[in-house]
Specification:
- The complex is a heterodimer.
- Chain A is an alpha/beta fold.
- Chain A contains 21 helices and 18 strands.
- Chain A folds into 4 domains: 126 residues, Rossmann fold, CATH 3.40.50; 177 residues, P-loop containing nucleotide triphosphate hydrolases (Rossmann fold), CATH 3.40.50.300; 75 residues, Orthogonal Bundle (Helicase, Ruva Protein, domain 3); 57 residues, no CATH class.
- Helix content of chain A is 47%, strand content 15%.
- In chain A, a hairpin with an 8-residue loop joins strand 13 and strand 14.
- In chain A, helix 3 runs parallel beside helix 4 and helix 7 crosses helix 8.
- By secondary structure, chain B is mainly alpha-helical.
- Chain B has a domain of 66 residues.
- In chain B, strands 1-2 form a two-stranded parallel ribbon.
- Chain B is elongated.
- The N and C termini of chain B lie far apart (27 Å).
- Classes of the chains: A alpha/beta, B mainly alpha.
- At the A-B interface, helix 2 of A face helix 1 and helix 2 of B.
Amino acid sequence: MSNDATEKRQARILLVDDDPDHLALCTRWLEGSGYSVDTAASGTEALACLEHSRPDLVISDLVMDGMSGLRLLSEVHRQDPVMPTMLVSGRAGVPDALAAAHLGVSGVLEKPLAKAAFLTAVAQAVENTPPSARHAGQLATAAGELVYCSALMQELIGRVQRVASGTSTVMLSGETGTGKELIARAIHDLGPRRDRPFVSINCSALPEQLLESELFGHEKGAFSGAISRHMGLFQAADGGTLFLDEIGDMSLSLQPKVLRVLQDFAVRPVGGLQPIKIDVRVISATHQDLSEMVARGQFREDLYYRLNVVPLIVPPLRQRAEDIPVLLDYFLERLAASDDGEKKRFAPEAKAVLIQAPFPGNIRQLQNVVERCVVLSSGTLIPQALVTEALQDQTLGMPTLDEARATFERRYIASLLRATNGNVTNAAKIAGRNRTEFYNLLARHGLEPQDFRRQGGR
Amino acid sequence: MQDVPPVVEVEAELADLIPQYLSNRRADLHTAREMLAERDFRAISRLAHRIRGSAASYGFGQLGDIVGVLEMAADQEDAAVVGAQLAAYADFLRCVRIRFT
């Protein structure tokens, strides 16, 4: 059995026509070609049908008593912007054709229909991706691919391409999981700095002192425990891009030091005497409302304006539901490739549920839902029930026990080192571990005791 | 009256649909005659348009041509041509022979 035949057999078509003979004829042709067909004798009947099932394609007659085909398809697209649709008509004029094109209708077929041409048009509409997805964009970055087809994302990518060639600071705002780091990576990869380093740091993941040392570096002997020179990330990114994720979580006391670097284009490592010239483009990102934080005195206004020269907003997934079908296809493709298995697909009803879901965790959550459905589905067609179950599971956005334990452990050890001023013997004693075990823990989490000795040592 | 009985080639896969299709066309003929008696040309035009939409697809191209002229005549409210086309329609239904392919 060919995949093509399987696809057809699984595809469901809703036929709408007030001529029962025409409905019977088209149904026979379509069923003879392996499609599953639902019929409706009016627009109202069709909308009722769509309330409980989602076909792969809606084909409607243009001229019908009551609701016209154009009005019906307009209502269909209001409910589901990516639903493929076709019109058939014996008297479609230019205004109708224009209106149909405006509605995103896949095609307008003229009655009387010729069987071969009709089935070819249906096959194209069903087997291709949805109309909007035909204009899908895909932008590869070193960190992954940006996949989209919505006007919102096309506009954002257009701006990304325009700002990539410059050196202005860029501020990316958007909810968690919207792909801000991918956008930052795209700006770097599309610009003249693409062959230089892209260095990323999450400002919320490190304690203040450690973050300072990470950003600016320190000289050997700058403070007790600074047994060797440490190059900071500003220097490591010289000639390239430094991405400061979750900049809103940076402490107020560290902010003026970052501002100084941006003003002077120079960095002075802790303990160093001479500033070192650097050429770094800074891209920052936040899920918080920084302007509001400025108003509340929680973020420095001068740094805000320095970082926010080019503001870019990464829209949440709920504002660009058109992207969901292409993202689903992308994730399914990628999962099939990584498992060396057959690419699975979502049942039409399952896809409809996904398109209408709010996704507070955005693309990251969508990706988790797809992965879970692929793992749990026994066949190649993922049913609606599995999707509903995955969406209802609020724990999908939560870390695993191992992840939660690792996060807690790292924070706990960092707080011990802070409390003991970086004294490993004392920290290990409090933790109830011997020195060897404690050093193993430090290595696992990439923590250096000397980074915690600066307050007392300087 | 038809000189030569029209022979229509219809796909075999539609064979079981044809009796109902022809039955519906006979009912339409009856309805159209009543409409003509009431000089409801708009209704005749709509009916003819609907028949024209599927006639050729079923294989009844000649019937499609007849109702095409019927639709135009109804649009022009030309009772004489409408009457003549309904007579041709009736002849066609009476004489048509079907060969399934």
